[in-house]
Amino acid sequence: MTVLKPSFEEFSTLTASGNMIPVWTELAADYETPISAFQKLSEGHCEPCFLLESAENSEQIGRFSFLGTDPRLEIRATGREISVRNKGASNFETHLLPESDGDPMHEVERLMAAFKPVEVRG
């Protein structure tokens, strides 16, 4: 049986401290790799979905793998053009970043300011 962490009771308590609480489980990697798990998850079951790995350039194996589906918010940037789509919306809202500050990460920081992550043990 898969055990999610934190427990429901811990999760409920953590909501007093913030609005972004990680929920996770640990899986033995005997028969599954992050790539194979992602492939199973993404085969027609999620759009969009993502895999983030902690491995760096020369490392073959990372310490953490993050799989996600059904994001609350999607952000895409190409040059000075940034597009944002909230969960449930069918289209992206697109605008140009000012020439004086064409760094899309500043827009990401602005959008993420509403989220207050909670620190959890584990």
Walkthrough of the structure:
The structure is a single chain. The protein has about 120 residues and is α+β, with helices and mostly antiparallel strands. It has helices spanning about 10-15, 35-40, 105-110, and strands at about 50-55, 65-70, 75-80, 80-85, 95. The protein has a domain at about 70-100 and about 105-115. Helix content is about 20%, strand content about 20%. The strands form two sheets. The chain has a three-stranded antiparallel beta sheet with strand order 3-4-5, with helices on one face. It has a two-stranded antiparallel sheet with strand order 1-2. It starts with 7 loop residues before the first helix and ends in a 10-residue tail after the last helix.
SSE string, helices as H and strands as E: HHEEEEEH
Average pLDDT over all residues: 86
Shape: globular
Number of strands: 5
Rg from C-alpha positions?
17 Å
Structural class: alpha+beta
For the record, give the distance between the C-alpha atoms at the N and C termini, rounded to a whole number. Answer: 19 Å
Low-confidence segments, given as residue ranges, are none
**% residues in beta strands:** 15-25%
- Please tally the helical runs, counting DSSP H or I stretches of 4 or more residues: 3
